[in-house]
Amino acid sequence: MGWRQGAIANWKKIEADEHFYGFGERTGLLDKLSDRLTNWTTDALDYTSLTDEMYQAIPFFMALRPELGYGIFFNTTFWSQFDIGAEQTGVWKMQSQDKNLDYYIIYGPEPAQILQTYTQLTGRMPMPPRWALGYHQCRWSYASEEEVRQLAQEFRQRQIPCDVIHLDIDYMRGFRVFTWSPQRFPDPKTMVKDLSQNGFKFVTIIDPGVKEETEADYLPFDEGLEHDYFVRTAEGKVFHGYVWPGRAVFPDFLREEVREWWGNQHQDLVDAGIAGIWNDMNEPAMNDRPFGDPGKKIWFPLDAPQGPVDEQTTHAEAHNLYGQMMARACAEGLERLRPTARSFVLTRSGYAGVQRWSAVWTGDNQSLWEYLEMSLPALCNLGLSGVAFVGEDIGGFAGNATAELFARWMQVGMLYPMMRAHSMIASARHEPWVFGDRVEKICREYIELRYRLLPYLYTLFWEAATTGAPILRPLLYHFPNDPKTYNLYDQVLLGPSLMAAPVYRPGVEERLVYLPEGVWYDWWSGEMHQGASHIVTHAPLEKMPLFVRAGAIIPLAPVMQYTDERPMDELRLRVYPGEGEWTLYEDDGRSFEYRIGAWATTTYRVHSSDSETDGSQTVVEIAARQGEWQPQPRQVTVEVIGKGEQQFEDDGSDRRLTF
Ligand code: GLC
Predict the structure, then answer these.
(1) What is the pLDDT of residues 217-267, one digit of tens each?
(2) Fewer C-beta neighbours within 10 Å, C or N terminus of the chain?
(3) How far is Cα 440 from Cα 406, in angstroms, rounded to an integer?
């Protein structure tokens, strides 16, 4: 180790054939060998695959080589940096502006174990409401009640499933947080109530900048000032920067009383029926002059005091925590204000442990093929950093998607743990129907597939909530001893069983796919392939290549227009011959009762047996249901690929089926 005034560093050896993953929100190659990675939350608008400082700053990574892996959590919130052999070949370095060198070495050897220990330390996500796993539609902005009602109607008329509509900054009165524009949204409560009858949930954006309002009564500003909740400079002046509402001030979310106050500000939104909050611009992002005028990005001075009086620090130590503590204030506030229903919280910025309070989206991407391709390594690296509930803006935020790009993006978006389409003001609209019939049909089909996969997905969320496992996984997560997976970023696994090999280029209709060791089935045709091998698969615009591992059991629900349309009265298990086991997790999907035992798990097993009379048989064993929650009476269809199907009424008892 070494140190000098204001910095401390530590060096370690890079072993032969060692690869480096995680590091929070990182696109580009999956493996960060030879990179320098800074941890400093930044509004990374216009980011590229080479951008270093991103919205999230998570000083964690895992180093993997065949048969061995370990994780490093650099326990500092100050500016810090990893240098993975960039400065000196064969040596990695971590340095920070902290006074102490404090880090954890987490033994694996496999990624799953590393993440389990890392999330034991930094926390795991709570179970989200089930509706948050449905399709989300967003735009900057659906800017009036009329527009929102029309949007909702359009989804239902066209029979494209959708659960969530996001309202961007224009719902507010002059961008004042915790207000509604009386012209655009004269009666939000009635609007939300009416549309909730048709299954819609609403998420509103909230930014940390509070408009400095010296004349009119504006409680968030008046109260915050009165109680001294806003960040001040070292000289004691209330700090201000420019954001959407013009000159704004910023709460010090590191203080508990400020978080509590901020959380309570959501009361009116909750009263209007809002079920989720989208926290934006919380790196924090601001300019030194009004938006639109040429100016520069700023943040609080590094010596600005922050945090509770008895544990005060400066912005230098608090910077990376700003967004995270805002999301925490929001999540804790919503849990107080909506004590019987799970809420959805989304944040742009965060630090290690952000998963405890919020889902994360990756900020402002662009409507270009490159960004579609870049989305998977970014989401996979977040997943390998303990953040499982993640998504990118489907269709791209800035710029104009083409019909083909949008169709391909919707297919990939089906795999995002948070599936939300978004688009920037003055750019092409990104609703599933705006690109004509052919693309609309593709969007419908993939959103429907998402809804059919909900029992599988919901179980993956439970796994994330209980073990820290990612939902979307790079192949190396399950094949850490296969060097061919170490840099494979354009194929992904959704959970352990489903592998996608999406198309990322215009005009491409064939795709080269790597199948790791084992037997794989084509999701669409049921065709069997033997790995490890490369195959070329046909991928016309209608088809995203999808494969399933032998021994997989995939539970499917009937298509619904929204997740709560009706109880899941039919369940289909698609079983792929081989050896395997899968535990289905269920609860009511909306309350906190699961915390006190109201959940159910059912374990399914598949194997083959050779009987003298019948030859080779596939056996599906269903263990008795565990837990206190009772699902609706339902019919279960077990479909063994290539062998046929059987049905039974599910009463929770064990059974054995042979095919
Ligand atoms: C930021 C967000 C984007 C949002 C916009 C307006 O750019 O990243 O998602 O639409 O602000 O609120």
Answers:
(1) 999 999 999 999 999 999 999 999 999 999 999 999 999 999 999 999 999
(2) N
(3) 10
In the chain, CATH 3.20.20.80 sits at: 130-361
**Ramachandran quadrant class, 539 (left: phi over 0; alpha: psi -120 to 50; beta: rest):** beta
- Is 614 designated active site? no
0.85 exceeded by the pTM?
yes
Superfamily of chain region 130-361: Glycosidases (3.20.20.80)
Nearest CA-CA partner of 456 in 523, 517, 510: 523
CATH architecture designation of domain 2-122: Sandwich (2.60)
Whether 194 sits among the annotated catalytic residues: the reply is no
Q: Where in the chain is the domain with CATH 2.60.40.1180?
A: 472-549, 567-658
Q: What span, in angstroms and rounded, lies between the C-alpha atoms of 37 and 29?
A: 13
pLDDT digits (tens, 9 = 90+) for 170-191: 999 999 999 999 999 999 999 9
Indicate which atom in ligand 1 lies nearest the CA of residue 205.
12
Contact (Cβ atoms closer than 8 angstroms) between residue 350 and residue 360: yes
Give the number of the atom of ligand 1 that is nearest the alpha carbon of residue 348: 8
Tokens of 76: 């500092």
Instruction: Please indicate whether residue 275, judged by its CB atom, sits closer than 6 Å to ligand 1.
Output: no
**Of 364, 392, 393, 586, which residue is the catalytic one?**
364
Nearest to 509 by CA among 548, 547, 546, 544: 544
The residue nearest atom 10 of ligand 1, judged by CA position, is 140
pLDDT tens by residue, 77-131: 999 999 999 999 999 999 999 999 999 999 999 999 999 999 999 999 999 999 9
The structure tokens listed for 342 are 């799970």
The catalytic position among 207, 280, 490, 587 is 280
Q: What topology is assigned to 472-549 in CATH?
A: Immunoglobulin-like (2.60.40)
Q: What is the pLDDT of residues 420-445, one digit of tens each?
A: 999 999 999 999 999 999 999 999 99
